[in-house]
Specification:
The chain has 10 helices and 3 strands, in the order H-H-H-H-E-E-E-H-H-H-H-H-H. The chain is mainly alpha-helical. The protein has a 3-stranded mixed β-sheet. Helix 3 runs parallel beside helix 10 and helix 6 packs across helix 8. InterPro entries: Peptidase_M76_ATP23.
């Protein structure tokens, strides 16, 4: 995504425009129907849109996962601009966000993101798709394995599975739980945006799982919590410095 405004994204035919908005995790059937009246509560001081913007700003400035991803995007020539590459919108259902490859925008569902922690997770997850889009020619629509790979990486590296993982480790000591969680979430994410059977989605995830689960870029490790993410960010900055001196 980001930083490549002249890049039309995978398959820019007009007929695909709508479908392209379904890329990555979520579906935005209503995104074209602008102008829906906001269902704000009289009692709330800020609108959902203002809250979304404020939480996004805090996420971009303070979350170590996001700070690392933003640095990595910049390093790969895809600098991210808050105004250009993020959009707070109302979404249908319980969708939290998505990456729109056709516009290189991350959509944040302002009606469904209710806390700073949730915003942190959604922005991190979507930035991993954006990072994959930036560094490689991802065939989001023609090869379901490409989508599967990015969903495995997003579930593995964004912390989506970490909280659950911690609880399970504490209570049941299941070492494999993280992998199981990543696989299940990747399959669900694919099914949310592709009209394919669960079996086809499972097959795609299984085919790419080993290599994509072990691809930890740009973190260099699985960042199980913010401390890990901070270390990963420090390592990335050192690596960046090292390479820029060669
Ligand atoms: Zn996703």
């Amino acid at each position: 995504m980001a930083g490549a405004p002249d890049e039309s994204g995978p398959g820019s035919a007009a007929g695909e425009q709508l479908q392209q908005q379904h890329v990555a995790c979520q579906v935005f059937p209503e995104r074209l129907a602008q102008g829906n009246p906001q269902q704000g509560f009289l009692s709330s001081f800020f609108t959902n849109n203002q809250k979304c913007q404020l939480m996004l700003l805090k996420t971009l400035q303070t979350n170590p996962y996001v700070k690392l991803l933003l640095d990595a995007m910049k390093h790969s020539g895809c600098a991210v601009n808050k105004e250009r590459h993020f959009s707070c919108e109302d979404c249908d259902g319980n969708v939290s966000g998505g990456f729109d490859a056709s516009t290189s925008q991350i959509v944040l569902c302002q009606n469904n993101i209710g806390s700073q922690a949730h915003m942190n997770r959604v922005v991190t997850h979507e930035l991993i798709h954006a990072f994959d889009h930036c560094r490689a020619h991802v065939h989001w629509f023609t090869d379901v394995r490409h989508l599967a790979c990015s969903e495995v990486r997003a579930a593995n590296l964004s912390g989506d599975c970490s909280l659950v993982n911690e609880i399970f480790r504490l209570h049941f000591g299941l070492k494999q739980h993280h992998q199981t969680c990543v696989r299940d979430r990747a399959i669900l994410s694919i099914l949310a945006v592709r009209n394919i059977s669960k079996e086809v989605a499972q097959k795609a995830v299984d085919e790419v799982f080993e290599s994509c689960f072990n691809d930890h870029e740009p973190f260099g490790r699985i960042p199980h919590n913010k401390t890990y993410a901070r270390y990963a960010h420090r390592d990335f900055q050192n690596r960046d410095r090292y390479y820029s001196n060669i």
